[in-house]
Structures are given as structure tokens and as C-alpha cells.
Amino acid sequence: MRRxxxxxxxxxLLSPSAAAAGGFPGEVLYSAGRAVSSPARIxxxxxxxxxxxxAGGLAVYSLDGQLRRAFLRNRSRLNDEISKNAEKLGxxxxxxxxxxxxxxxxxxxxxxxxxxxxxxxxxxxxxANAAGTLLKYSAGRAxxxxxxxxxxxxxxxxxxxCTSFPSGHTVSAFSVASVFAARSGSRAVKGLAYALASSxxxxxxxxxxxxxxxxxAGAAIGTAVxxxxxxxxxxxxxxxxxxxxxxxxxxxxxxxxxxx
Length: 260
Fold this sequence. Notes:
Strand order of the largest sheet: 1-2
Distance between the termini: 28 Å
Strand content: 5-15%
Number of strands: 2
Number of domains: 1
Oligomer: single chain
Helix content: 55-70%
Radius of gyration: 18 Å
Structural class: mainly alpha
Number of helices: 11
């Protein structure tokens, strides 16, 4: 299994904030558990939103083939360069660096809210990816480039070509962006956060790594977890260490988080 690149190291740059919070690993564990088990807690109040999301997802699924061909027809050198840069925003290492830098800046400025936001973004990233990884391997959907079509599902096939649904990059991008958006009172910041995350979603379809319905699901998961993490106020008990699975087409492995 390939190592998780620089993500654990970058996340440890947040350790001064984590030490101050004390319960960060426990918060991540709690959030990951809630994210994975959320289908079991669907209430009547959730049904309208869930129904709308399901209808939208099915509509996009029906258009997966057409959307893929539309993106492929618009390949160009300029678009390739834009795509290359947009992909970084959904890469775990880059996301961790952004979160770590923001947390470090908060320490320098002695801004508790910035430090807290960095921890919440890291928590959201890990929790959302835990849920996304479980779904990814459970679904076993073939990627577009595999040539098996959009309806090919082979659960628990641990091969990159069978891990299309949902898009890990999109989960990562929206899990971080939604926290920054929720914690900011600026419409410009909110718009920028979601615009950057959306560029990752579009890039995954353009690069032929995912179907459009994959990125829609990834955006929904990342946003739901991020907004929930940002809104939650209760604190849970914190173990001394936590190991969570994280996966994307460019890396696979586990993220270790420690409080010290």
C-alpha cells in the first residue's frame, strides 16, 4: 500500500493547536463514526432534502455518459494546464498544507478562532474521507477510463480502476471548503471556498478520473460533514491516538493523528 504522502507530517504542524484543544483525536473519531453511520439516523425531517438529492443524483447519473463525452471534446492545452492546477486543491497533501498554514498563522496572530477553524477543517477532512473511503470500496464502481461503462459495480475490488464512487478528491476539497465557508461571515470567502472546491469536481470529470455523479456524491458528503462539524458544539472524550483510512487516486493509506 502506498504511503499517504506528506499528509500526516503536515497535519502534525497543527499539534500546538491540537495540544490546546486536547480532544482533537476523539472529535475526529466521533465525527467519523457519525458520518459513517448517518444513514441509520435519517429522520422524517431529512426526507425532503434527501429526496431532492437522490433525484438530482439519478438525473446526473443518467447523463454521466453524455457529460463525459462533452468534457472530452473540450480538451485543450490550456484546459489541461488549468486541470493540473485544480487537481492539487483536492490532493490530501495540499489540503493538509493549507489547513496547517492557516492554523500556524492563527498561532502567530494569537487568534483562537483561526486555530479552532484549522482543527475543524482537519477533523472534517479525516471524517469525510473515512466515510468516503468506506463507500468507495463498498460500491466498487468502475472509473470512466476503465472502459466498463457507468453501470459497472464490483464491490470490494481493491483496485484503483474500481474505486470511482464517490470522488475522493471532491470529498476532500468540499470537506475543507465547507468548514471555512461555515466559519466565515464573508460572502466572498464563502463563494471563493466553494468555487475552488467546485473546480476540483470539474477537474475530476475533465481528467476522466470520475463520472459526474461521482463528484456530485463527493461534494454532498464533504459538504454535509464539513457543515456538521462546523456547527457541532459538543465535545467528546479524546483517546491518545487515532488511525483513519484515507484514499484518493493518487494515494492510499492511513492518517495517524496524535494529541501531545
